[in-house]
Amino acid sequence: MLDAASKSVLAWPGSSRPHPDTLTRNPGVPFDLAWLDGLRVNQSAVARRASTLGTRRAVKKDAQAAWLLKAITCIDLTTLNGDDTTARVERLCAKARRPLRDDLLEALGMAPGSIKTGAVCVYHRFVKAAVHALDGSGIPVAAVSTGFPAGLIPHPLKLREIEASVADGAAEIDIVVTREHVLTGNWQALYDEMRDFRAACGEAHVKAILATGDIRTLSNVAKASMVCMMAGADFIKTSTGKEGVNATLDVSLVMVRMIREYLARTGVAIGFKPAGGVSTAKSVLEYQILMKEELGRDWLEADLFRIGASSLLSDIERQLEHHVSGRYSAFNRHPVA
Known about the structure:
Layout: H1 4-7, H2 43-51, H3 61-72, E1 75-78, H4 86-97, H5 102-107, E2 119-122, H6 127-133, E3 141-144, H7 155-167, E4 172-176, H8 179-183, H9 187-201, E5 205-209, H10 218-230, E6 235-237, H11 249-266, E7 271-273, H12 281-294, E8 307-309, H13 312-325
Parallel strand pairs: 1-2, 1-8, 2-3, 3-4, 4-5, 5-6, 6-7
Helix pairs in contact: 2-11, 3-12, 3-13, 7-9, 9-10, 10-11, 11-12
């Protein structure tokens, strides 16, 4: 059973910031190229800082179990495969509602059904099915959009896809930016595109996927992050999960530093979502430490931190079972869907 100190990790932090249900959306700010002036990234310094995240801090035993339970509440449980079916999406939603077995929760001193994932993320075709399967759970449906994953369909079709997903009940939209705007330094075009996406989302929150593995440099990552936030993105997200290189601690560090800069300039808190490659309990702890050290306790909550993942939950389950029983179980005992 978790001790009281470890359980405190799971509680909403006492702070001056409102509860997530009442948080203000990011309204964006007028485009100002001066915000990008002097944005340079020291790659070797970033690498040195990122390399300390898994070594300078140690989260063990009950504390580690509590951090992993918290991580589950921040997972965007995802299926984005060509062979997805309605039945698979429904199973995924059932897993999102009850991601851990009741006996494990009880052994950890938690009430059955007390943990659920942050969201379920699907293609537009399955939004209605997911909304229906999650009815009454409080778990939002996130839809990937704008020609995911490449983002190369015509702009008007991107807006129509967003609007269709919102009409079907998606509460969050994960858009992909046009990489060409970043690679050519056309920051005004990126801003205008993102503003259109933000408007099309209406009340739905928008996560801007930068596809960091495609935009080549950390300076590009920093500038694209800032422009998307200026244009109204509620979250910035590393990757689609389909690039050759997806989430890394290096690009994540750069992105959260830009979130910190935007917060200092505007007073608006922006969320962060690493996606692609965050598949083990050890790796998610490194991302949680990154958020805690760089942005603070509030960024361990699902309104400001999400992890795009499909297989991560199985490894977290295995680690929690080991914590309870002292034995590791086979992955096939912890199916996601």
